[in-house]
Amino acid sequence: MKNLGQMMKKAQEMQSKMGEMQERMDNVEVLGVSGAGMVSVTLSGKGEMRKIEIDPALLNKDEVEVLEDLIVAAHNDAKSRVEAQVQSEMSELTGGMELPAGFKLPF
């Protein structure tokens, strides 16, 4: 029974650390860019879009599709950077312990 008590204590510690990590990630901002920096998207560490910047040179009504593609590309760039940062934080939190496939934390 001693091992069970230790496991419960470690699980509670990990839960507390995970809550702290989630708070930190909400305050993190990650920048994704496309079009050689002509479009940038800023996401929170939780993946929420906070800001978008578009170079005025792209504001041409005849090239709306290009702008749309650049926005999507910048968002995807930022999203992949957020995922990498979350994975790094989780690796620190779990001490490098691999989680089962499809098991996503903290969201």
Architecture overview:
α1 packs antiparallel against α2 (64-93). 52% of the residues lie in helices and 17% in strands. The longest helix is centred in the last third of the chain and has 30 residues, at 64-93. The chain has helices at residues 2-27, 64-93, and strands at residues 29-34, 39-44, 49-54. By secondary structure, the protein is α+β, with helices and mostly antiparallel strands. It has a domain at 29-94: Ybab, Chain: A. The two termini are 32 Å apart. The radius of gyration is 19 Å and the shape is rod-shaped. It has a 3-stranded antiparallel sheet with strand order 1-2-3.
Question: Characteristics of this structure?
Answer:
alpha+beta, 107 residues, rod-shaped, Ybab, Chain: A
